[in-house]
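ok so I'm stuck.
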Amino acid sequence: MNIQGSVNSGRTIVSPGPTTAWLRVEGPFLPYFGRWLSRPAALTDVGFGASSSTTLKARFSERGDLTLGRFRVSALVPLGLASGPPLQSTPVRLRVVPRPANVLRLGIELATRHQPGGVALASKTGESMDLRGVRPYRKGDRVRDLSARTWARTGKPAVREYQEEYFTRVGVVLDCIAPRKRSARSEEALEAAVSLTAGVVARLGRGDALVDLLVTGGEIHALTLGRSLGFLEQALDHLAAADLEASVDRSRLLERLAPYLSRLSAVVMIVDGWDEGREGFVRAIEKRGIAVHCIGVGNASSVRAGATVKLVSVDSIVTGKGLVL
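replied:
not stuck anymore, here's the structure
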């Protein structure tokens, strides 16, 4: 597993005197699973009333919410022999998110479904597209959607926004159960499953489908990701806190999912094993006319015979191998 994060000191440093000063910037100590990728050079030629900034980058091997210490900046006396009293930032809080696996393609049929009222989309693809209106241009909008008349009239770039009545909505489920005794192997499988889930969401978000919800254990996270809507960071934030579940009441989970299932076209389910509970959960969803694509993380021994599950090894995920699922 290889998770990256970056820390920006984000501080404006003003020299303490009327003359030019050299400033030393120091970052906080990192936890055992983090290391600095770079060290900041001293800030030079920072005159009175001027400002300067620097960036430090770190890499972490575990995901989750972190609270680091304080960044410090101090003035160096001539020749750099000593430094003055430091100024300190507030403690730095950040979230380390999983790195998405390299998912190249998903082998699941994504049929369109009627969505009463439609959804406003910035990209014009698919069928049954109706013009909803125009809105200000945002970075990433396609040039072909620019509205020349509105731009000429207002002097500001604008794009045509469409409403689609028929499109694909997908749910993504991460289902990993804690063994009786947790081990390094089970933790590695969990991290691979989380990375794979992130990769599936990223792959779907680059296609014509909308990722409508993300389920981690027994938690349901509503999303609207894909087709120029939402951001992958939404899903990564939720996955950053994912953990092995001691048990999941899947019958209760199905009841809570009922309001979402009626509009889904497909469900992608990532598991670390297979049992009757998971099979019953899948069959209940399929009875509603929703296609379910199951992906297992591990080896053949973790999935019993007869289960329709696409197996992916932990090593292929960790090493960044291109995955066709």
